[in-house]
Design goal:
Length: 482
């Protein structure tokens, strides 16, 4: 059997080995040196003890910065010292300009790509339209080249020609067409070679232009008295007295041998609009004596007449003639009026037109009270009120009013229908007004109370109240002024 002391010895040796291994891993070597973006390690070793120095070298496309340290050291704490920034990108310099083009780039350093483009009207003729900054500080391939766009000669035209004539035309070169034999060129006379290698417009053509001699009735010419009328020939018209021009007064012969704008018209004016049944002109048109062709006037229905829905209240003047107006007004209508008690009215109908009248009559010799005649008004209602029929034989009036400086005869306590009284004045005063009054069918006295005038004052006794009216003596007033 293994003794207890031997086991303890083995255990202690094992612990010493573990501790030695840990001490050796923590404080003996450095890890593999860090990798740098712009430099590579200049060594092949795999273990790095404390104090080991390793060196870097700049990668292709990078240059060493003078005075900067390219090494790092494994420190006593098993870490590497901080490396300097000792490499920079290599520059290729300006890549070179191209004629009739330009390039675009952010910088000229290693790896940069410079793209070239041609100006409008020029095409890239090189295989590559770019250059790349290489590791050795030079640019790839040659500077791209641009060449002007070329157009083939344009088409010839019948009865015309163009100038200048060449075998080929470059961007923005132009040609001008013209016609022979007094023909007119239709289309653009000039065109140019575009950046796409075609011409800027369609080929024009030559055409004969001849407009007919126009006729505008009721007018005279201010210009363009005789032809021939070719392209852009112009005529100016003026209408005769009493006529107005409609359209443009000046017209021109266009490329299609047509007058442009269309021929004007000289149209006669209208006189006063016609009078219409049941209607009158609106105020805006009443004082106007003449109206141009195309003018419109409006009518309004007279009082007592209403517009008919859907009918036109407007007429139009056209070449001295008014259009035929609609009948657009109809009379106001009243329903039959009310009957009165003990009477009737004539004529009797289902409806009555504006201003139609009816007359009321009483039965049994009764007296009519009120206006016996009524008419249909503009509002569709009847005028006044319905008269009544009274038995006048039973009507009684009280005594009439007394007068100052006078009296009436006969004097009684009551008076029957149609009984009359006569007023008389005292002291040689003169009666003013109708001296005779009679008892009416309504139980009231006819007319007003007369008065007795002595030249200065007049009085009227109303019951127990005396109303005195002071009069100006005319002779005294006249005496003051004369």
């Amino acid at each position: 059997m293994i003794s207890f002391s031997f086991c303890i010895r083995c255990w202690c040796i094992f612990l010493l080995i573990i501790i030695a291994a840990l001490f050796s891993g923590t404080h003996g070597d450095c890890d593999f040196p860090p990798r740098l973006q712009d430099a590579d390690l200049k060594t092949t070793q795999n273990s790095f003890t404390i104090g080991t120095v390793v060196e870097y070298v700049c990668r292709p496309g990078y240059l060493k910065i003078p005075g900067r340290n390219t090494t790092i050291t494994c420190l006593s704490n098993s870490t590497w010292s901080t490396p300097d920034v000792f490499c920079k990108l290599r520059s290729c310099g300006n890549p070179g300009d191209t004629l009739n083009g330009e390039f675009h780039a952010e910088d000229f350093n290693f790896g940069s790509v410079v793209n070239y483009t041609c100006n409008v009207g020029y095409n890239m003729i090189s295989k590559f339209n770019y250059r790349i900054c290489q590791t050795d500080g030079t640019w790839s391939n040659a500077v791209p080249q641009c060449e002007a766009q070329i157009c083939s000669p344009p088409e010839n035209i019948l009865n015309g020609s163009f100038n200048p004539t060449k075998d080929e035309y470059y961007y923005q070169d132009s040609v001008t067409y013209k016609c022979i034999n007094n023909l007119v060129l239709v289309g653009k006379s000039s065109m140019f070679c575009t950046e796409f290698g075609n011409w800027s417009s369609a080929v024009p053509h030559c055409k004969g232009v001849n407009c007919a001699n126009p006729d505008v009735p009721n007018s005279k010419r201010l210009s363009g008295f005789s032809g021939p009328y070719t392209l852009n020939s112009a005529i100016t018209f003026k209408c005769n007295d009493g006529f107005d021009i409609f359209g443009q007064s000046t017209i021109e012969c266009n490329i299609d041998s047509q007058w442009e704008p269309s021929l004007p018209q000289c149209l006669g004016r209208c006189g006063s609009p016609p009078s219409l049944l049941y209607a009158e002109l609106k105020p805006d048109f009443v004082d106007q004596k003449t109206f141009s062709s195309g003018a419109e006037v409006q009518y309004a229905c007279l009082i007592g007449y209403n517009p008919i829905s859907g009918k036109n209240s407007t007429i139009i003047c056209h070449d001295a003639t008014w259009s035929t107006p609609d009948v657009f007004c109809t009379s106001q209508i009243c329903p039959p009026p009310e009957n009165n008690v003990n009477g009737s009215f004539i004529p009797q109908k289902d409806q009555y037109l504006y201003k139609e009248r009816v007359t009321y009559q009483c039965f049994n010799n009764m007296e009519i009270v009120g206006d016996p005649s009524r008419f249909c008004t503009a509002t569709g209602k009847w005028s006044s009120v319905v008269p009544s029929c009274n038995d006048s034989s039973a009507q009684i009036c009280p005594p009439p009013e007394n007068i100052v400086n006078g009296h009436f005869i006969p004097q009684k306590d009551q008076y029957l229908y149609k009984e009359s009284v006569t007023y008389q004045c005292f002291n040689n005063t003169k009666i003013v007004g109708d001296p005779s009054r009679f008892c009416t069918a309504t139980g009231k006295w006819s007319s007003i109370v007369p008065s007795c005038n002595d030249g200065n004052t007049a009085g009227v006794i109303l019951g127990n109240t005396v109303l005195m009216l002071t009069l100006i003596i005319v002779t005294q007033v006249l005496g003051k002024f004369f």
